[in-house]
Amino acid sequence: MVELCYPAPYLACLQLTRPQCHNALTPALIDALLTHGENLAVEAHDAEVKVLLLTGAGTSFCAGLDIKQVQADSQAIEYLLSPYHSTLLPRSLGLTRVQAAALIWRYFPVPVIAILQGHVLGGGLQMALGADIRLAAEDAQLGLLEMRHGLVPDMGLSQNALGLLRYDQLLKLILDADPLDAQQALALGLVTEVHSDPYQVGLALAHRWTQYNSFHLHQMKVLCQNQYQGTPIQALVQEETRIQKAILAG
């Protein structure tokens, strides 16, 4: 359901592999994502992985929760909403298993690039928003469709959308429950760039970034995130100085 490969030194790629179902999320797929994410985080801390690509096999990135399969299993929802604990994610957040599958990429030690094509819907979009960079194909369709099914977005959207969308834009996206095309998503800030071949663009970015020191990559990711989380300016500039001193000290 999830395949791991290493296309180049210091570069890991996780691919969702349920193309016949547009890579829809199931409990087993979510567990596989979390297991790989935790293991790769250890490799990143050891400077063995410096960039992670997150992709989907076939014509879509991820169409969200596999509602039919989950509804057929009376214990699936309870399992997905059960608490999830890890050394990578802050215990204070009190995350469920399904929330962790989206937020783990936000807390991943080094940059995560999501390659988006076709359906990027519901939980698929919420997971993509956990990545640091989102490169979309021209055929990508992005949206939050949970309201159509009598549900609400519950995969850490309130955290992952922070700094990307205004309050009114986010609320409209949720309540409209209609997909946006790639250019609309770009204008709104849901994706970083749109390309005819986002995977190749992502590879090129990753090749450049893997030339950097792992410490630099991690610190810049955290610093940029803190800027959007309302960290006071004084603390941010002091953190810049701390990082630079640590680098110069070797």
TrEMBL record:
Keyword Calcium listed? The answer is no
Q: Which GO BP terms sit in this record?
A: fatty acid beta-oxidation
Q: Which SUPFAM superfamilies would you find in this protein's record?
A: ClpP/crotonase
Alphabetical keyword list: Isomerase
Instruction: Give a yes or no for keyword Hydrolase in this entry.
Output: no
Instruction: Write out the GO MF terms.
Output: isomerase activity
Family listed: Belongs to the enoyl-CoA hydratase/isomerase family.
Name listed for the protein in its UniProt record: Enoyl-CoA hydratase/isomerase
